[in-house]
Amino acid sequence: MSFSTWGDFLAMGHHGLYVWSAYGCCALVLLWNLMVPLRARRRLLDEEARRVRRSKAR
User: Fold this and answer.
1) PANTHER family, alphabetically (predicted)?
2) Do the beta carbons of residue 38 and residue 44 sit within 8 Å?
């Protein structure tokens, strides 16, 4: 499918709202799937560091 202008490309044959919202939702899900494990890993490492500091203080 070819488009004659950028406006036509963005409109996607009058389906632009659906197409671009689908891309946006997909991007949000991908970001969520990246961020949640990274935050969980950081939290786990912080908790482990606190546990090690407490055990050394005894």
Assistant:
1) HEME EXPORTER PROTEIN D
2) no
